[in-house]
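Subject: sequence -> structure tokens, single chain

Hey, anyone have a minute? Need the predicted structure for the following. Not urgent.
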Amino acid sequence: MSRITARRRVIRLTLGGSSVAQEDLLAVEEPLEIRVGGRPLAVTMRTPGHDFDLAAGFLVSEGVITRGEQFSTVRYCAGATDEGINTYNVLDVTLAPGVEPPDPSLERSFYTTSSCGLCGKASIDAVRTQSAYDVRDDALRIDAALLATFPAALRSEQAVFDKTGGLHAAGLFDGVTGKLLVIREDVGRHNAVDKVIGWALKEDRLPLRGTVLMVSGRASFELTQKAIMAGIPLLAAVSAPSSLAAELATEAGLTLVAFLRGSSMVLYAGSERIVGQGSSGQGTVDMGSVETASGLGVADS
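Reply:
Had a minute. Here:
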């Protein structure tokens, strides 16, 4: 059995038909404890894989580090159990000399679930982390037709989703060429994004100017914040945004696109970055002429 998927015996029932016992593949969900300098910082439920990227991206999202040179080493902790077994579910990050350790206020008093990366935060003010990068002046301009190809490109690379149907995905695209730079999957949408940002940190690509972050689910406040913390100027989602995500995007100068499906999309902030064929004919899409998502009846778990 792999660490990413697990087999389980199930019964498939069809109304008016027969029931069949068969094996099914499930996406694995396990806790990961992240320590910094030996001190526990957070526990998140995640799909094992690219754990070092996840830890690095988490530290960027929390404003602890901003550059690859500040991230020294990371290792799984041996003896994580009373029996001294390495479960590969506890890792410890060492920051570079001179880098300030995380503020004690960031320490989570309880774990972060795979669906909510903000659990344990004291208030919404505590998560309005000041980014080291300003996305407002990013010169990215992207044709709407090119942007519309990103969901299919992301979906085509979701290898584990094809097996389980149970993982979110986040992909980073070059906003000029449309090239998919990296994709990560996880049971938690925020974990998938942290894995992408962690990859970028380790590749010394921060800030991620001129890029597009494409996510397979909703555009939450937290995902918007993570994009801003990594210097990403455009966040696109196949499903709905939250009101707070739209407000934060407007405040920060981030372009927020949601309900990106087929040939349609809804622009919630930063519409000046979307160019090409719009309802007004051509050129930059006019926010005043874009239909709202009200009544679309589309939701995401």
